[in-house]
Design a protein that fits this description.
With about 200 residues, the chain is an alpha+beta fold. About 5% of the residues have low confidence.
Length: about 200
C-alpha cells in the first residue's frame, strides 16, 4: 500500500514554480545558442533562396534561348526546303508550259491520233497532279487588279472600261508555291484612259 501511495505522489503534477527553480542555468545558454543557430539557418536559407531564384532565372533564359534556337532552326529548314523545291520547279515550269501549249493545239483527225492525244492528256493530268502535291497552284490573273508582286506587265493599253490597272490577258501563266510567288504571270494590262 505504501508503494501505491508513492506512485500516486509521484504521478501528481509538479508545481511550475518548483520546475523553474530546479532548471539548470545552462538552459539560458542553450536558448541563446539555439537562437543564434536559428538566425544562422535563416541567413543560410535566405542565401539559398537567392541562389534558387538566380538558378530559376538562368533556367528560364536557357529554355527561352533553346526555344528560339529550335524555332529558328525549323524556319531555316523550311526555307531551305522551299528554296530547293522552288529552284527545281522553276526549271520544270517551262517544260510544263510547252506541254500545255502542245496539248492545246493538238487536234486529232483520226482514231489513232485520238488515242495518242488521250495518252498525252493522261500524262498532262499526272504532271499537274504532281505539281499540286508539291503545293504548286496556278494564279488566276485575267480580270484581277494588276499586282506587281504577282504580275509582270509585258503590254499595256488604255481602256475606257477600267477604273484601275486591270489584267486583260495572260501571256504566260503564273504559279504560287505555298502561297509565295514561284513565277509571276506575264500579262497584258488595261490602264484607265487619260482624261477619264
Amino acid at each position: 500500500m505504501a508503494e501505491n501511495e508513492r506512485t500516486t505522489e509521484n504521478s501528481q503534477p509538479q508545481d511550475p514554480s518548483y520546475a523553474e527553480t530546479q532548471a539548470p542555468e545552462a538552459s539560458a545558454a542553450e536558448v541563446t545558442g539555439l537562437t543564434a543557430r536559428i538566425d544562422q539557418l535563416a541567413a543560410e536559407n535566405s542565401d539559398l533562396q537567392k541562389k534558387l531564384a538566380d538558378y530559376e532565372q538562368k533556367y528560364t533564359r536557357l529554355m527561352a534561348d533553346f526555344d528560339n534556337f529550335r524555332k529558328r532552326t525549323q524556319r531555316e529548314k523550311d526555307e531551305l526546303a522551299y528554296f530547293v523545291s522552288a529552284k527545281l520547279l522553276k526549271d520544270i515550269l517551262p517544260v510544263f508550259d510547252n506541254f500545255d501549249r502542245a496539248r492545246a493545239f493538238a487536234q486529232p483527225d483520226n482514231e489513232r491520233e485520238e488515242k495518242l492525244h488521250n495518252s498525252y492528256q493522261q500524262v498532262y493530268r499526272q504532271f499537274l497532279s504532281v505539281l499540286e502535291k508539291m503545293g504548286v497552284t496556278a494564279m488566276e490573273a485575267v480580270g484581277q487588279p494588276f499586282d506587281p508582286a504577282q504580275h509582270e506587265a509585258i503590254l499595256r493599253e488604255e481602256s475606257a472600261g477600267v477604273s484601275q490597272e486591270t489584267v486583260v490577258a495572260e501571256l504566260q501563266k503564273g504559279y504560287l508555291l505555298a502561297d509565295k510567288v514561284l513565277r509571276p504571270a506575264m500579262v497584258k494590262v488595261a490602264i484607265p484612259e487619260v482624261g477619264s
